[in-house]
Amino acid sequence: xxxxxxxxQPSGQLALGNYVGALKNWVELQHQYDCVFLVVDLHALxxxxxxxxxRNRCLSFAAQYIACGIxxxxxxxxxxxxxxxxxxxxxxxxxxxxxxELSRMTQFKDKSARHEDNINSGLFTYPVLMAADILIxxxxxxxxxxxxxxxxxxxxxxxxxxxxxxxETFVTPDIFVPKVGARxxxxxxxxxxxxxxxxxxxxxxxVLDTPDVIRRKFKRAVTDSETEIRYxxxxxxxxxxxxxxxxxxxxxxxxxxxxxFAGKGYGDLKSEVADVVVATLEPFQKRYQEVMADKAxxxxxxxxxxxxxxxxxxxxxxxxxxxxxxxxxx
Length: 330
Ligand code: TYM
Known about the structure:
Elements: E1 3-8, H1 16-29, E2 34-39, H2 41-44, H3 51-67, E3 76-79, H4 85-94, H5 99-103, H6 106-114, H7 121-135, E4 141-143, H8 149-165, E5 174-176, H9 211-219, H10 237-250, H11 254-260, H12 266-293, H13 295-324
Parallel strand pairs: 1-2, 2-3, 4-5
Helix pairs in contact: 3-12, 4-7, 4-13, 7-8, 9-12, 10-11, 10-12
Binding site for ATP: 9-11, 17-18, 145-147, 184, 193-197
Function: Catalyzes the attachment of tryptophan to tRNA(Trp).
Protein name: Tryptophan--tRNA ligase
């Protein structure tokens, strides 16, 4: 089976954008591929974290993967820090990644503008660790939202650079971006993307938001001063975002959803989208409670995942060390 690798940073709260852009597609692809899904806790360290909160959030995110439909029997669920080879390969790849390449990363530019007091070197080399995550499992496909495209291109470039400099070692991974919902926008500011760590919680729907909160957030969602419901990202970003969320969750083309709302009002659109989101997330929330109630079971899943992942990761890393000229440890 071809290999899938993807991951989510345990920062803020797992959000609807993460579900639509990434998790939903992981669930749909998991039986056709050999999948490794990471909670990228080391990446989360690039912004300041409260240790006790981070610890809980890592477990909570893993539980939410399962609650949203990742089958721990079929897929490998791993906390990134449980597999030390990621950081080790990142060091090697970092020696083959140019400052200029990393300086061009738009996510670094955005994040360093937002966290001016903490522009650390980890934030800068973040895409190198991401490349290591992907390449260490020889992933063929990486299902992500549109915002990760640039990082994935870097991972491909670094893989090819290594292969050319030494010899064929890494698979060059392809990106998988969903047709609908690759970029879900913030509910209050629909020209910027929905982010799980947005300081304004009205901007995102958390996977664990209660139905009341979800309905209230959609009721307040920013639209525009017209009344017509149509898909027009340029002129009607708020309405288009609501149509996109509906289309992604009901597996329809956006045009079909827009046609369904023709002649209806914004109030109808908001309440129906809220219904669709509640209907999607409510079963996840029930399942989440069950998964979290069995903490030993969850820890066992992660222990098993880590063990499998370490063996696979070491296979690639030992090959890399050998090819670049390091002496194997006796
Ligand atoms: P992160 O944690 O920011 O986001 C996790 C996933 O959710 C997608 N996503 C979105 N999709 C649609 N609309 C949105 N508004 C939205 N916001 C986020 C992201 O594209 C991503 O797929 N660098 C990665 C984590 C990572 C990773 C990896 C991903 C680390 N190593 C290896 C893939 C493979 C990140 O910060 O994602």
